[in-house]
Each structure stands twice: as C-alpha cells, then as structure tokens.
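Key idea: predict the complex, not the pieces.
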Amino acid sequence: MDSFLSPRGTGGDSLQIRPIAERTSPLTAKKVAQASVPPKRRTRIQWSYHLMLFPGLLFLIAFSYLPMAGITIAFKEYIPALGFFKSPWVGLANFKVMLVLPEIAQVFINTVSISSSEIVLLILLPVIIALMLNEVRKQWYKRTVQTIIYMPHFISWVILAGMILNLFALHGMVNNFLAAFGVKPINFMASNVWFRPIVVSSFVWTQMGFDTIVYLAALTAINPSLYEAAALDGANRWKQMIHVTIPGIMPTVVLLSALSLGNLLNANFEQVFLMYNPLVYPTGDIIQTWVYRTGLVNANFSLATAVGLLQSVIGFILIVISYRLAYKFANYRIF
Amino acid sequence: MVRSKSWGSRIADAAIVGVLLFLALLTLAPLVHTIAESLSNGAKAAANEVGFWPKEFTWASYTTLLQGGGFFHAFWISVKIVILNGVLNFFLTILMAYPLSKTPQEFPARRIYIWVVVFTMLFNGGLIPWYITIAHLGIINTIWALVLPGAVQVFNVLILMNYFRSLPKELDEAARLDGAGPWYICWKIFVPLSLPALATVMLFDVVSQWNSFFNGFILINNPHNYPLMTFIQQLVTESQAANLSLLTPAQIAELSKTTGPSLNAAKFIIGMIPMLAIYPFIQRYFIRGIRLGSLNE
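Result:
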C-alpha cells in the first residue's frame, strides 16, 4: 500500500510529465514530523484532516456511492413507487433479456468501433502535429496555430453539433462544395455509411489540438545537447527527428496509449446524442444512448441499469488494466 | 538546435507551415461560417446562400435575441450555476486535496480515504441509478440539481493533491514548528502557492459547467429553468414538432419568432463567447496545469 507514495526515481526521468510525488524532498523523514509534534496536538491535527475531508465525502456518498447502491435494481423489477429497496428481486432476469436482445451486441460494437477509431487517431495526429509545430521556428506562428487548433475543446457540444449538422445538412456547405464537382447532394446525417466517419472525424477535430499540448510539453523536455551531438555526427533534420525527437517522446506516447485503453467503452455520449437520429441507430447507437432511451425515455429502468452495469464492470476492468500497463511501461501512478 | 539551410530543409519548412495553416483554417472555417450566418439576412441564411461572408449584413439576429425569448434568462441561469458550482468546487477541492496530500505517516487514514476517493473514478453506478438517486434527494427541477452533483470533481482533487505534494515539505514543517495548525497551513501557505494549479482546475470546472447540457435536459422539467446549453439544444437542434409538445402555446409562438439559421448562429456565437474569451488568458496557467493532470485522462 505504501509503494505509491515512495519516490520512484528511475524511468520517469525521461518524461516531461511525471508524478509529482517523485519530486518531493528526501528530507521528509517521518521521524521529524512525529518527534516534533506532541501526541495531543497530533490527535488534534488528525481530527482537522478528517474534518476537512468530511464535506467532500458527503458529496461523494450522495452522488457516487448511493448510485452504486442503486445498481441493485439491475437484479430487481424496479417500480418507482416502491423505490430502490422495496422493489422485488428478479435475479438475473434482466441479464437474460439483455442476452436475447439483438441490438445490445450492436450498440457494444458501435461503441467500440467509434471509440477505438478515435483513440488511434488521437494518438497519431497529435504526435504528428506536435512534431510539425516543433519544427516551426517562428514562435508567433507556432503559438497562434496552437491556440487556434485547441479552441474547439472549449466549445459546448451543443454548439459544435449544431455547427456540424449545419455543415453536413442536405443543402449545407459541404454539399454545396461537392456540387461544384458535380457530386449529387448526400444526406450525410441519415446515412449509415457516413455517420461514424463524421462522428469520429468531428471528435478528432475538436480534441487533436488539445492533445497536442501534452506532446509539445514532452518535446520541450528533450535535452538540446542531444540534437547538437546528432548534428555533429552529420544527422540532418529528418535523421534528428527519427533518432532524437521520436525516441524522446516515445515514453509519453506509450503512457497515453495505455491510459486511453480505459476509454474503450466511452464514446462521447453528448456528441452522439446530439448528432444521431433513428435512421442511423444501426451504426450510431452507442451504449449510453441506448441506456438513456431504454431507461429514461421508455422507463425500463432495470433493463437499462443492467446494461449500464455491464458497461461499468467492463470499463472498470479496462481502467485497471490501463493503469497497470501505464505503471509497467512508463512507471506512472495516478495517486 | 543546429540546422542546415539546404533546399530540402526549406521545402520541408514550407510544407510544415502550409499543413499547419490548413489545420488552423479547418478549425476556423465552421466558426467563420457561423459568424457570417449570424450577421446575414435570415432569408439568405435559410436559403443556404451564406458562405464565409455575411449576405445582406444585419444585426437583426442579435437584436432579436436581446429582445427576449428567454435566451438571456437561460444565459443568466448558466452564470448562476457556474458561480455556485465554482465556489463549492473551490472550497471542496482544496479541503479534500490538502489532507490527501499528506503521507500515511502524517495522516494514517489517508490510505483508506484515497481509495474511497479514487474508486469513484474507476467505477460508477451508471446513468439510471444516478438519476433515481437525484430524484430521491428531491432536488430535481431546482438549480441545485445542476450544482450539487458536480460539486466534487475527483480528477481536480487529484491534480491539486499532486501539486500540493510537489511543494517543499520544509514549508509545512517550519509553519508547524511555529505553532500553525492544519487549517492555517492549508489556507495561508499551500493555497497561495498553488494558484496555477487552482486556476487550472477552476477553468476545467467553469468550462465543463458552462458547456454541459445533458444534466439540464434530464434533471430540469420546466423549460423556463433550463441552463443556456439545454435551452439552445431544445430550441435549435431539436426544433422538430415532436419536442414542441413539451412547450406551452405561448412558447411555441415565441419559438417561431426566434428560430432559423441566422438566429441559431447568433445563439451559438453568444453561447461560446464567454469560454473563448477566457481560454487564451488562462492558457499559461493551463499549460502548466495540464502537465499535472492530463496523464489521468
């Protein structure tokens, strides 16, 4: 249990971004803290700490742990009038229904297909953009491009989706543009061919600039003397990038890839909810949108909770695996 | 960096500048189109004649928004949510991060607390139990349904906790030897030294609160109490007849006056302006802060 608090000096050194715990002073001998504080005062300090945590914990209990207790309705026939606790138990009945519903497999496939495409693109593109920004010598140009491309991250999905639907509408700008090349108008948002690519590319469009920042931070941490040594050895810019820059940011790439595994079952709910419609349910309906419609629109609370529980459990396993991988390959711990 | 000035190198430079320019334009294009629509004659926008420059320039969409239709009422509700939530977040984040930043020697119960806190990040009850819990707490349809559930952001707590741990331990020990208690040390020593990290987590919070629409959508039943993004979503993205059944006849009449591409574009612009006004200024803090936190995503 103590291991996550002990300083870990190796491995993390090549990372610009690293657990802060590493940097804590070695002078923090526990003996000093204990010896200098009389027992009575020590107890008072302990109580202060408990008291500080208390209000926050109340919120976590109310809005995180009570809903976890509510998971029991996945094993019940939830009747709103009876509440969480008095509704009758039905065992695994909801899960049996889930297994025979054909659309359940489909929403899991849709979710993983959308999110895995996003994960791959959001590793590749930000790395490439960061490498390009790193080659720009004019600082003002670099900073301006950087500021512009991460702007969409700060805009609500309501507005982003509104703009995207507008652009891809039957008579929107994209179709107007294509018409110039003689292409007939395409009903993008009603097309099961186009829906996923549009969702994925628009998500990547909003996030890639933001994710670039992390890699840029890693790039600035590379020791300049490595470039000088490479140049002395006759390496041109391309060779320097291959042999110095890319190995320098590799630990960050590996780390973020490992951590992104935890998001495999989390396609962006708000985005899909705002952009989809019944025509594209076959390719665009994701777990969360299905849970929302089944639970809150059709009031089939227990079945929706059962599917949500399956997602939470798989998500939990994925996150734990991703943290393990991050620890193993990048020596990184989140707390 | 040592770089040669060969022709290949210059071509590479030009290509890089070009590709980056393309990316920047790709980001700006939808925004410029939206601005152009908002400043165009409504009929021209509805006929899809507007590209990147307004057609028959007019401020009409913005003056219509100013005249009512609930837009600025919803805007004000969102401001209230951001402030209430921000204040709660500020205090709760600091109060949780400080004790959790202590070592198990200094605070033995930390071992348990940190798991209680982190577990909420790893696992959740899902949408339906969450909704039912909030319904049972009796805050549905009030502003508190949009303020309280997000009052503690565990992710932010961890960012600030890590920042606290990066501060020199000697600060803490010296203050303690001078007789300062934990509350004093937390507020008078740690908080003033952690302003970059605090600014970052507060920015995260303000942006996510301002931009969220779904909680308003499911937790508020009366359109009069919608926060801005829910208001925009209801009247813009879903102005089909099916959803009008939620509204009163007076509101439907209001809607017919206040919909259409150029008006919607004006709503988008005003809705995003507060965030776009904030983000470049906090960029400096933000980039320092993201180095602490982005790894947790």
